[in-house]
Amino acid sequence: MNEGGSLFVGFLIIAGFIFFIYHSNKKEDQDINIYQTRIRTSIVGKSKKVIEKHRKQLAIERKKYVYFDAYGNENLSRWKQKEIPYFIEHYLFPILTHEEIRTFHFASDIIFERIETVSKNQIIDNKEFKEDMNGFEFETYCLEKLTEIGWKVTKTKNGADQGVDLIAKKGKRNIAIQCKKYSRPVGNKAVQEVKSGLEFYALNEGVVISNRDYTKSAKQLAGANNIKLLHYMEIDKM
Known about the structure:
13% strand
């Protein structure tokens, strides 16, 4: 075979090799895409059922953790960085296979968006709650909500409440309640006020009700003193 023929054969061999590698990689990419689509579809399908089951509570949690800053912008940082991951870890992962958990990143963006959309659009009966309420209006709102579900509620004297805004009674239960309408998470002070009020009014249960979440230290102090910390949409849990 002459030199030209050898070069041509060599060219064909190289071209064939390149063709083989190209189509092998293309098939591998197709297989990966098929695998990712299958896993993503399975994760999303399972997750949707759990998200729908907890949509009302998700809406309540979003109300707790999302707030508007001083510039009027919605602050979603804690909701997206802590609470949604918490929900995923404790409510979605238990229903997924090990393979689905390992490859959850294939569907994570879809799941995050689904949780945000469902929780934001869920209609909750707020019964006249308004974000621009002042503290006294919020107390009245809590009193009316408690009365609606069967509690006998009295307001303490303004300015001399000894750390208690409301006293709720039902059967043998007598509860000291502090109402806090805040723009940020509620801290230790509210828990300390209820603790003092329990002693002053000789009551055996204490509750703080707020429109926001509570700081870690407030939760620790409340736990140590058997005081409940509630969001206003959780009043029925009393």
